[in-house]
Amino acid sequence: MLQILGLALFSISNGLVSDRQQGFFKRLKLSPFKKSDYIMGVVLARLFLLSFQLLLLLAIFYFMFDFKPPGNWANIAVVLFCGSACLCLLGVLIGARSTRVEVSTGIANMLYFPLMFLSGIYFQTSYFPDVFEAFVQWLPSTAFLDAFRLVANEAAGLQQVAPQLTILAGTSVVLFIAIYLSFDWGDNG
Q1: Spatial distance between the Cα atoms of 172 and 89, rounded to a whole number of angstroms
Q2: What is the pLDDT of residue 189?
Q3: At what angle do helices 101-118 and 140-153 cross, to 10 degrees?
Q4: Helix (H) or strand (E) holding 78
Q5: How far apart are CA 125 and CA 121, in angstroms?
Q6: Which residues in the chain land under pLDDT 70?
Q7: Which residues, in sequence order, are CB contacts of 89 under 8 Å at separation 6+?
Q8: Which entry of 95, 123, 158, 173 is 20 to 30 Å from 22 by CA?
Q9: Given this model, what pLDDT does residue 188 score?
Q10: pLDDT tens, residue by residue, 121-174
Q11: Rounded to whole angstroms, how far apart are CA atoms 76 and 62?
């Protein structure tokens, strides 16, 4: 989860800012290429990279530690895809308007640590106060981690993690729309 969160927030946003600074988007805007195609291309490219990294980690865990999750591998893959796509879209949103790497890195840091601690990676979210816990359950990182734990560790089916997948899908749609409406092609300066 931390690897996915870090790659999504830092790598994607900084890569977009670098492309903008080098004038890549100005050239891309002159082509018949659509903004939505570029956004989906960035997300799918990172998901492709993430899939190899996750397969490598799972293979290492399998062969070195005899890790065999009781969950269905297809369900695990669906949850990993949905959660990773949502977090990648968050990284694209950070890079959508940032004009300097320092700004995108600062924004990514500002989101990374709260998402990391509030998602339940290190301690259960049930320890939070009730008002805070209700908010935390709506975070995409919490939904992702909860769904992943349920399908991988407790062999839950996709129906049992439908609430978490709904949060991830809804957040992804909102992020995509926000990215589409605010993406800066680098026309200024």
Answers
A1: 7
A2: 45
A3: 50
A4: helix 73-97
A5: 9
A6: 186-189
A7: 39, 43, 171, 172, 175, 176, 179
A8: 173
A9: 54
A10: 777 777 778 888 778 888 999 999 999 999 988 989 999 999 999 999 999 999
A11: 15
If one counts every other C-beta atom within 10 angstroms of the C-beta of residue 176, the result is 19
Distance CA 154, CA 75 (A): 12
Nearest one of 171, 119, 128 to 148, comparing CA atoms = 119
Is the CB of residue 17 less than 8 Å from the CB of residue 95? yes
pLDDT in the model for residue 127: 79
CA triplet 143, 148, 154: central angle to 5 degrees? Answer: 120
With 0-12 / 13-18 / 19 or more C-beta atoms within 10 angstroms meaning exposed / middle / buried, residue 164 is buried
Say which residue the tokens 């899939």 belong to.
Answer: 51
Instruction: Tell me what pLDDT residue 163 has.
Output: 95
